[in-house]
């Protein structure tokens, strides 16, 4: 066991922290969380922790939502019983954690192996001391399984010692249907879902197994005489199952999973988990030379991205904090489609497909939302759980402690185009025609129908979309938001493309789908008319998009006067003044630059970026990554690098902004996007891939892998030698554009090209 407890030697794969600051314990629990897309476990203290201790350990199961009691209650992801508690004591009381020289509560996240390791010393005055090392994992190989190992070495003293292993929260948030020694079955109070947990423990002292005393369900105890040099090993395996509705054979699934784990044993369970992680890293790692901080930040981002997805469950998606915390109640936002899907699409297409199937399975909820408001098609929930119904809270307490109405669930409508965008990107990159035929086409058509219904013709001959909120949530009830309208137009045009494609390639499917949707040629013609006449806010003379109608007339606040602030701009200026100003919460027109760069003429991209960038207050964790991506594409590489490190700091650096509510998973996706779509200049096109690398001066090389239409490619950008190399590792030959010039690549012929020296962007 001792070797398994040693972390990976390469520091770029390891995140470490030592100490025990009660004010930061919740942040550490987030940062060092482990997950596999089904089970998520926060890295809270679990040894001799008092019930009133800091950082209550939380375990989450994806898709386990329930609605608490109370008026206007909102569904939320609920914590489940936590099976990590250990209490070690002597006759006089518990051993206490030692905070003297040496590790006091060291945490190590071995990102390469997907393990949480921790270490501490436990003492009883000067009489007894012991060193405890722990290993926790949730299996990347078999997601229903969790494993916990304790390695306790007695350093000094002889005494009767008792170790008690237990679960916490057996009666919290869930209603118990069955509680046996090793099996629990619960159901949610209002949604009627079932949770099953089965657990088994084993304790060995100097290699000899001791039988436990069972004190209660999920509570085991052992007592023995300790002596110096003694080695105590505790092994705990847990099997978990979730069901949509209660049914017969309660507990059978969890017991079967537990049996599978026990049959494997901890060594094989660990080995299979490490092998699964090795496979994930071989497909998704970014190897960066020249910037150790950026390398670790990227590994941290990719670790959490790989931890967040479950390709085997198309009924769940990834919440704004994944399974690492409770902020935003576990709800799913546009974050998933815009900031996470790009990573999965080119490194883990199976996970990307599953996440998009979640949107397909919640399509009826989106239709219902549109119909409730008098529109047609699919209006996706701004915040959603497992049903697809809108779950955005109606009110919240503002920074000034006043109750404010939350309008995003009604007015932030670009979500439907965001989902359509991800569907199209996935299909372009994978060529997954089966997905397009069976699910993707219907999403594209129904979201386009929504926009054609939502946009209304007016006397100026244009169609307008009024009373919305764009990505910049500081401004509500606005008209013709450029991001919303241009994305809506793009959505309609892609739906028309897919209608033509189905008619041409799969006429039987088109006949069935158009009949199912009651979609005829007259309606398609109307969609085309809407797309051609939709107001976008573009000024042809300047090339600038007006963020929304009337934006240019608002107060222009100089944000440089507020440099060094530690609170959002809407708190400083106040809600009313912020709404009457040009201060932007997060990337809006800049987000349009990132997603649809083809909508900007030559030079207009730089003009728009330079106009909107100094007006953005970055009041959202989503913002800096979008700005960094666009800056990198425009050649402003050092500015992009600054945005990169600012984004990395959100979850990795202890600042005044606490992260106890969970990892900002969209920011982690943004780090990957900045690296691959920004600095490497990758673009996914209908005719293939394009690359236009521009690395920061400090980055000597950047290497990564990707998948494209059943091909696997390895890409290396060597700034020292000014070369780009692309190797095709599997699949058919293809053409890749490098700075716009086509190059062929095949299994026996790599692509080698020169890379350009980054230059400061001109005035355009």
UniProtKB/TrEMBL annotation:
InterPro entries xref list: 6-hairpin_glycosidase_sf (IPR008928), 6hp_glycosidase-like_sf (IPR012341), Gal_mutarotase_sf_dom (IPR011013), GH65_N (IPR037018), Glyco_hydro_65_C (IPR005194), Glyco_hydro_65_M (IPR005195), Glyco_hydro_65_N (IPR005196), Malt_Pase/Glycosyl_Hdrlase (IPR017045)
Domain of life: Bacteria
Residue ranges annotated for the Glycoside hydrolase family 65 C-terminal domain, each copy included: 684-745
Family per similarity comment: Belongs to the glycosyl hydrolase 65 family.
Name by which UniProt lists this protein: Glycoside hydrolase family 65 protein
Gene Ontology molecular function, alphabetical: hydrolase activity
Gene3D superfamilies documented for this protein: 1.50.10.10, Glycoside hydrolase, family 65, N-terminal domain, Maltose phosphorylase, domain 3
UniProt keyword Transferase, yes or no: yes
Location of the Glycoside hydrolase family 65 central catalytic domain: 299-673
Annotated keywords: Glycosyltransferase, Hydrolase, Transferase
Species: Brevundimonas staleyi
Transmembrane feature ranges: none
Ranges where the Glycoside hydrolase family 65 N-terminal domain occurs: 18-243
């Amino acid at each position: 066991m001792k070797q398994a407890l040693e972390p990976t030697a390469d520091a770029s794969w390891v995140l470490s922290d030592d100490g025990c600051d009660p004010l930061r314990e919740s942040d550490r629990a987030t940062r060092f969380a482990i997950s596999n897309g089904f089970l998520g476990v926060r890295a809270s203290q679990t040894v001799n922790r008092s019930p009133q201790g800091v950082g209550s350990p939380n375990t989450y199961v994806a898709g386990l939502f329930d609605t608490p009691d109370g008026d206007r209650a909102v569904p939320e992801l609920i914590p489940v019983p936590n099976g990590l508690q250990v209490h070690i004591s002597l006759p006089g009381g518990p051993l206490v954690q030692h905070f003297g020289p040496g590790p006091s509560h060291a945490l190590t996240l071995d990102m390469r192996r997907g393990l949480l390791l921790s270490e501490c010393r436990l003492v009883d005055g000067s009489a007894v001391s012991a060193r405890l090392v722990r290993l926790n994992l949730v299996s990347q190989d078999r997601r229903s399984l969790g494993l916990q190992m304790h390695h306790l070495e007695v350093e000094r003293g002889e005494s009767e010692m008792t170790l008690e292993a237990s679960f916490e929260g057996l009666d919290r948030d869930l209603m118990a249907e069955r509680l046996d020694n090793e099996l629990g079955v619960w159901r949610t109070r209002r949604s009627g879902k079932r949770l099953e947990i089965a657990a088994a423990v084993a304790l060995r002292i100097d290699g000899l197994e001791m039988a436990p005393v069972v004190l209660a369900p999920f509570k085991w105890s052992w007592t023995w005489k300790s002596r110096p040099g003694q080695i105590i090993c505790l092994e705990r395996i847990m099997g978990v199952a979730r069901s949509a509705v209660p049914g017969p054979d309660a507990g059978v699934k969890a017991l079967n999973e537990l049996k599978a784990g026990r049959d494997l044993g901890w060594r094989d369970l660990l080995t299979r988990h490490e092998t699964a992680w090795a496979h994930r890293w071989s497909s998704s790692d970014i190897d960066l030379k020249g910037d150790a901080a950026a390398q670790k930040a990227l590994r941290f981002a990719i670790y959490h991205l790989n931890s967040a997805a479950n390709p085997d469950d198309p009924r769940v998606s990834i919440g704004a904090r994944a399974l690492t915390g409770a902020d935003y109640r576990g709800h799913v936002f546009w974050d998933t489609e815009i900031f996470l899907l790009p990573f999965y699409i080119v490194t883990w297409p199976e996970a990307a497909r599953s996440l998009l199937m979640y949107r397909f399975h919640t399509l009826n909820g989106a239709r219902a939302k549109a119909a409730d408001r008098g529109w047609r098609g699919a209006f996706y929930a701004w915040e959603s759980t497992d049903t697809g119904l809108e779950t955005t809270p109606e009110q919240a307490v503002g920074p000034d402690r006043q109750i404010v109405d939350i309008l995003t669930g009604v007015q932030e409508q670009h979500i439907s185009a965001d989902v359509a965008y991800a569907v199209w990107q996935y299909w372009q990159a994978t060529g997954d025609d089966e997905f397009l035929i069976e699910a993707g086409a219907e999403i594209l058509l129904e979201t386009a129908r929504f926009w054609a219904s939502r946009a209304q013709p007016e006397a100026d001959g244009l169609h307008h979309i009024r009373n919305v909120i764009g990505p910049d949530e500081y401004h509500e009830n606005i008209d013709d938001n450029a991001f919303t309208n241009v994305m809506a137009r793009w959505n309609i045009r892609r739906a028309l493309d897919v209608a033509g494609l189905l008619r041409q390639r799969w006429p039987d499917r088109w006949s069935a789908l158009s009949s199912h949707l009651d979609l005829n040629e007259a309606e398609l013609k109307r969609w085309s008319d809407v797309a051609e006449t939709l107001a976008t806010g573009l000024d042809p003379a300047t090339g600038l998009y007006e963020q929304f109608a009337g934006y240019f007339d608002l107060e222009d606040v100089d944000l440089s006067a507020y440099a060094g602030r530690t609170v959002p701009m809407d708190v400083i200026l106040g809600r009313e003044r912020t709404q009457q100003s040009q201060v932007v919460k997060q990337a809006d027109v800049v987000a349009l630059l990132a997603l649809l760069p083809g909508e900007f003429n030559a030079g207009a991209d730089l003009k728009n970026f330079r106009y909107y960038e100094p007006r953005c207050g970055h009041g959202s964790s989503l913002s800096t990554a979008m700005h960094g991506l666009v800056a990198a594409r425009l050649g402003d590489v050092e500015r992009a690098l600054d945005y990169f490190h600012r984004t990395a700091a959100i979850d990795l650096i202890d600042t005044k902004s606490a992260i106890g509510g969970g990892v900002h998973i969209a920011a982690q996706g943004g780090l990957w996007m900045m690296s691959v779509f920004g600095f490497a200049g990758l673009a996914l096109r209908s005719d293939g891939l394009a690359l236009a690398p521009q690395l920061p001066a400090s980055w000597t090389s950047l290497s990564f892998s990707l998948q494209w239409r059943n091909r696997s490619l390895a890409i290396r950008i060597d700034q020292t030698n000014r070369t780009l190399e692309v190797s095709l590792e599997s699949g058919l030959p293809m053409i890749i554009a490098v700075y716009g010039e086509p190059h062929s690549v095949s299994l026996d012929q790599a692509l080698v090209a020169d890379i350009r020296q980054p230059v400061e962007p001109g005035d355009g």
